[in-house]
Amino acid sequence: IAALLIDRGADYESVDNLGRDVLVTAVWRNRIHLVKLLLNKGAKVDRVDRRERNIFHHIAGDSDRGLQADTSTGEEILRLLLAEAGPKHLEAQDARLRTPLHWAAATGNCFVAAALLKDRNVNVNAVDHNGRSALHLAVRWVNVLLEHGAKIGAEADGGFTPFHTACADQPNPAVLDLLLRGRDEAHRRTILRRKTLSGRSALHLACEVGNTRVIEYLLADPAVITTTRDNFGNSPLLSAAFSKHRNVVELLAPYKQAHIDRLGEAAKAAAQQFNATIINFGEYKRGNEVDKRKSVFDVLYSNPREVKNGDAGVSTVCRKGDSTRFRWIHLPVNNVAWCQELLTKRFIEEGAKDVEAFKAVERSFMHQHRGQRFHSSYMRPMCQSIGRTVQASPPADTTSVNEHALSPSTDTNERARQRLTLRTDVEIVETQPSPSSGTAAEDNFISPEAVVPGATVSDGRLPYPRRHSTSSINRGGLLAPPEEADGIRPVQRSSTLESWDEREPPERHRPKERPVLHQRKRRGSSASKSKVEMDDLSSVAEHNVFLFAPYLHFEFDDERKEMQKAIEDAGMSNGHSRPTAIAFQEVLPSPEELLIRAHLHDQLHIRRTLDQSFFRNIDTSVRDADQVIYRYEKELMKQGGGNEKLKVLMVDQLWMWVVGKDLLITSFPRRWRQTRKDHPLNVLEGIIEEINANTGENVRNIYELAVLIAGRCFGAFDCSGVREDGSKFLDMFESSIGLAMDQETKLFAEFKHASQEVSDFLLSRHEQQSAQAKAHSKRARKLSSSKLPRNAKELSPGQEPEEIHTLMEIGAETKLLSDVKDIRDELDMLKIVFQQQQQVLPQVLDTMEGIFGDNPMIKAQRAKVERRLQINERAVSHHVNEIKRMDKQAERVYLSIRDLLDLKQKHANASEARYARYEAAETAHQGQILMVFTIVTVIFLPLSFIATFFALDITEFPHQGSDQQLPMGYVLKYLLGIGLSFAVLCVIAALSFDKIARLLKTNW
Predict the structure, then answer these.
(1) Element (H or E) spanning 550, and its range?
(2) CA distances in angstroms from 700 to 388, 476, 481, 532, 858, listed in the order given
(3) What angle do CA 360, 365, 370 make, to 5 degrees?
(4) Which residues lie below 8 Å from residue 350, measured CB to CB, with a gap of 6+?
(5) Model pTM greater than 0.85?
(6) 694-736 pLDDT, tens digit each
(7) Half-sphere exposure of 93 (CA within 13 A, CB side)
(8) Residues of 865-891 as b/e, b for ≥16 C-beta within 10 angstroms?
(9) How far, in Å, CA of 268 to CA of 709, rounded?
(10) 585 phi and psi, to 5 degrees?
(11) Residue 741 contacts by C-beta under 8 Å, 6 or more apart in sequence?
(12) Which segments carry the ANK repeats (predicted)?
C-alpha cells in the first residue's frame, strides 16, 4: 500500500506537527520493508524535527529499541540507516547540543551506543549544553535509580543481582565502583560475596567471560573470596580455565602480587619461616646443582618465569632436556591452603590445559571431615587415581608454562636459572662470609653435611644420617665420616635435595659466614658409578593420584601442652586478629605459632593426639595427659631411668598427590619446634636416609618413591625401625599389660591371705561362742588354744583383724581396672588407625595396577611396586595381630580384676552375714542378761518400797511400848503379801504383753 501511495504521488517527506517525517515513524514501528522502500525512494536520514533531532537521535532515544537489539530486524534497520549516514549525521547535535550517543547513554540503549562506537567511531566525549558527556548521563541514570531506592541486591531469574550482571557484561570496573559507592563495609562485603542460585559469585562470572579489568578490580578488594566454589565445585580459576581464558588464569595464579597482598602478616611470616623439601631425581653424571634454600613462601609464591636477585623462582615441572626426571616437593604441615596453592601453581605451569583432571584433584579436598573442635578436622583415608585427558608436555626451555598464551612478553633470558655446579671432587670449608640475601627466609649457609651425587640442595644442607657430620668424601661422591672415607662402597643414588625441613634459627642467631667450595683430588672410582638409570614410563598413561592416610607418631608432652596453649590462644581470637609486623618483632613467635594464628580458623589440620583422633568432638585434655606410654615413661623416670621428656602418641596424616609422571607432592606434619637432629624418629629424615642408603633398592620412578614414602610413614610406629632411645611403643604397651598382670596377681594373693585370716578369725569367734554356750560339752573341753589363729589370740574380744579392711578396700583394684581399661581403649584406637591403613593399601595396589596395566615393558617396575606394597601390608597386618594379641591379654587381666572385685563383694556379703549372726547371738545373750536384771528389779522394787515405808517413824504402826521396832510377822505379812504379789503380777504382765496386746486388738 505504501509503495502504491508513493507511486501515486504521496509525499513521503511530509512531517507531523513535531517535524518528524515518515521514515522516523517506520523505524519506530520496526517496519523494515517500509524503511527499505523509503530509503530506495530517496528519503533523507539527515532531516531534523523542530527540536533539531535527526533519525539517529530518535532511534537512540527510543528505550524500546534496546529491547529489540537482539532481533535480526532491529539490527538490519540500524545497518541500513548507518549505511546512508555520514559522520556529521551521527555526531549531529539537537537543540540541547546532545548527540545520538548522549541519548543512547541517557536511555540505556546499549545496542545503539555500541553500534555508534564500534562501527562508526563517533566522538565519545562530546558534550551537551551543560557540558555533560554521554558518560555523565549514564552515571546520572544509575545514580537516580540508586537514590530512589533501587536495590542493588535485587534478584532476577537464577539469583542474578545487578552487580552480577555488571561483572558479566560491563568490561569497565567504574560501573562496579558506582554500584558499591557509599556502601558500608558490611553491605559491601555482602554484595561482593553474594552468589547466584548456581553458587557462582561475581568473580566467577567475570572469569567466565574473561573480563580482566573487572577481575583486577575484584582482586584488589580484600572482601572478595578467590577460593569460593559454585554448586558444581568450580572455583573462579576453574571457570576461567574451562572458558580457556589463559590470561585470567594467570591473573589468579598464587605467585601474582594481587594474591600475595591478600595474605595476612601471620600467613606470610609462617610461609617464610617454614622450609619445604624439594628432591629432584634424574640421571646425573658428575655433579650436583645447588641453589639457595627455598622456603614455603618461595615454593608457593615465586614466579617460575622470573629471576629476582639472581635467583629463579621454584618450578613444579621438569623441563625437557633437563636431567631431572621427576621431583618430590614436601610441605611440613597439613595445611589445605598451601597444598591447594601448590597444585594450582603446577596446573598453571602446565599451561592450564587439563582442566577436568585438575578439578578432580581439587575435589580431593572435599573428603575432609569437619567437626565442632579444631582437632575434628582430618582427611578421610582413601587412595584414588584420576586419568589425565591432556598429557603434560612441558616446554624444552626454561619456561614452565605456555608463555605465548599467558605472558608473551616475558624474556626467556631473564628466566634462566643460575646454578652453582658442585662436582664430586670437592670439600666444603667454612671460611668465606656470604652476603645478605635481603630477607630472613633467604639468609642461609651451606652445612658441612653430606653431598649426594645428583642432589640439588636449595639451602646447601645435604642429606646424610645425622650421626655423620664431616666433610670427608667417600668414593661414591658422598660425604662420609673420617673412619668411613676410605673403603666404602660407592653410593648408587641419584637424588636432588633442594631444601631441608627444619626450623630456621632467628636472624640474630644465624652464623655470619657461609662455606665456600674448594676442590681436591678424590680417590676411588669415577663419578660415573653414581649414575642411576631412571625407568622409562613413556608407555604408561599419565594419571593424577591422591592418597590420604593416618599414621602414628609421637610428641613430647611439654611441647604438646605448648601446642595446645597456642591453639587455645588462637581459638579465642575467632580468626579475626591479624598481628602486625611490629608485634612479630616484639614477641618473636615460633613458626608453628605463626602458622596457627594464620590458618587455624581456615584449613589447617593440627596434629591430633591418640585420644583426639578417636574422640573428635570432646575435650581430651585430661585423657591426653594420661596415656599409657606417658604413665609408663613417668614410672621409669621415678625409678631413675627413661627419658627426661615424656612422650604422648600422636596420629598424623600423610597427604600425597602424584601429578603426572614428574611431580610428587607430600604433606605430613613435623613435631612442635622440631629440628633436624632432635630425634631418630624424624620421618622426613628417615625417608631421605632410606633414599640415600646404599643397602636398599634404587628409586627409579615416581610411583616407587610414592610407595616408599607411604611405607616409611606407616612404619614410623614399627618397633624394628626404632633407634637406641628406647621408643618402642608396642613394647611399652606390652610391658604395661605385664605390670598390670603382675599387680593383679599380687592383689589376688593379698585377697586370698586376707580371706583366710578373716575366715579363721570368724571361725574362732564362733567356736568360742559355742564353747561358752556349751561349757560342759566334751567339744568345749577339748578345744585347744592352738587351733586359734595368731590374730585371734592376740586380739581382744572387741577388736577385729587388719585383714578385714583389706577385704573391704577396693581402691587398688579399681585403679588397676581403670588402667587396664585405658590400655584396652588405646589399643583399640591403635587398631583403628592400622585398620584404616589396611583399608588404604589395597586401594593403592589397585591404583598402581590400573596405572601400569598389563604392559610387558614395565612388568619389572610393576612387580617392584607391588612387592613394596606387600611388605607394607604385611607390616601393618603384623601390627594389627600384635594389638589383637595384647588386647586379649589385657582382656584376661580386665576380667580377672573384675572377678577379683566380684569375689571381694561376695566375700564381703558372706562376712557381713557371719558378722550379723555373731552380732545377733551377742544381742540375744545381752537380751537375756537384761531380762534377768529386769526381773530382779521388778521383784525387788516393791519389796524395797514396802521395806522403806515400814522404816518410817509413823505413830499408827503397832509399836510395843516405847520400842520403835515392829514385829517380824507384822512386817512380813505386808512385805510378802503385797510386794511379792505385785512383783509376780508385773513379771507375768511383761512376759505376756504381746499376747495381751493381740487379745485386746482382736476383741476391740
Answers:
(1) strand 543-556
(2) 22, 18, 27, 8, 12
(3) 150
(4) 317, 392, 394, 401, 660
(5) no
(6) 555 678 889 989 999 998 888 877 644 444 455 578 888 888 8
(7) 13
(8) beebbeebbebbeebbebbeebbebbe
(9) 29
(10) -70, -30
(11) 889, 892, 893
(12) 18-50, 96-129, 198-230
From CA 466, how far away is CA 445, in angstroms rounded?
17
CA–CA separation, 103 and 879 (whole Å): 82
Q: What does the angle CA 310 – CA 315 – CA 316 come to, to the nearest 5 degrees? A: 165
Q: What is the pLDDT of residue 697?
A: 66
For residue 553 the three cell numbers come to 607418631
Helix ranges (H only) for 693-777 are 702-714, 729-773
pLDDT tens-digit readout, 935-965: 788 778 888 888 888 878 777 777 776 677 7
pLDDT digits (tens, 9 = 90+) for 16-71: 777 777 788 777 777 777 777 777 777 777 788 888 888 788 777 775 554 444 56
Q: What's the CA gap between 365 and 381, in Å, rounded? A: 12
Altogether, the residues listed in the chain come to a count of: 1004
Report the amino acid identity of residue 972: L
695 is written with which cell numbers?
A: 643397602
At 104-113, the pLDDT tens digits run: 777 777 777 7
Query: What is the DSSP annotation of 349-410?
Result: HTTS--HHHHHHHHGGGGGEE--SSGGG-EEPPEEEEEE-SS-----SSS--S-HHHH-TT-
Grid cell digits, residue 787: 587351733
The burial class, CB within 10 Å (0-12 / 13-18 / 19+), for 146 is middle
Residues 6+ apart with CB under 8 A from 958: 966, 967, 970
Give the lowest-confidence range in 129-143, 596-610, 783-797: 783-797
Chain centre to alpha carbon of residue 340: 14
Per-residue pLDDT of 466-495, as tens digits, reads 333 333 333 333 333 333 333 333 333 333
What's the pLDDT score for residue 354? 87
Q: What is the pLDDT of residue 40?
A: 76
Give the best-scoring range by mean pLDDT among 312-316, 512-516, 785-789, 987-991. 312-316
CA distance 742 to 190: 67
Query: What's the Cα-to-Cα distance from 476 to each of 285, 460, 531, 892, 951, rounded to whole Å?
Result: 12, 19, 10, 55, 133
The closest alpha carbon to 554, from 379, 679, 383, 684, belongs to 679
Mean pLDDT (the chain, rounded):
74
What are the φ and ψ backbone dihedral angles of 548, each rounded to 5 degrees? -125, 130
| Close Cβ partners of 487 (under 8 Å, ≥ 6 residues apart) | none
DSSP reduced 3-state for 651: strand
Q: What CATH number does the domain located at 162-252 have?
A: 1.25.40.20
AA letter at 103: W
User: Radius of gyration over alpha carbons of the chain, in Å?
Assistant: 48
SS3 280: strand
CA angle 37–38–41, rounded 5-degree value? 90
d(CA 699, CA 714): 18
Nearest by Cα to 474 from 525, 420, 423, 422: 525
Query: Which cell numbers in the block locate residue 123?
Result: 566522538
The C-alpha atoms of residue 607 and residue 616 are separated, in whole angstroms, by 12
Q: Which DSSP state fits 786?
A: G
Per mean pLDDT, which range of 312-326, 367-381, 840-854, 906-920 is the poorest? 906-920
C-alpha cell at 717: 610406629
Question: What superfamily would CATH give domain 2-145?
Answer: Ankyrin repeat-containing domain (1.25.40.20)
Domain ranges of the chain: 2-145, 162-252, 730-939, 952-1003
The three cell numbers of residue 853 are: 596395566
Q: How many CB atoms lie within 10 A of CB 195?
A: 17
Q: Do residues 258 and 222 touch, judged by C-beta distance below 8 A?
A: no
- pLDDT-derived band at 771, boundaries 50, 70, 90: low
More confident residue, 820 or 640: 820
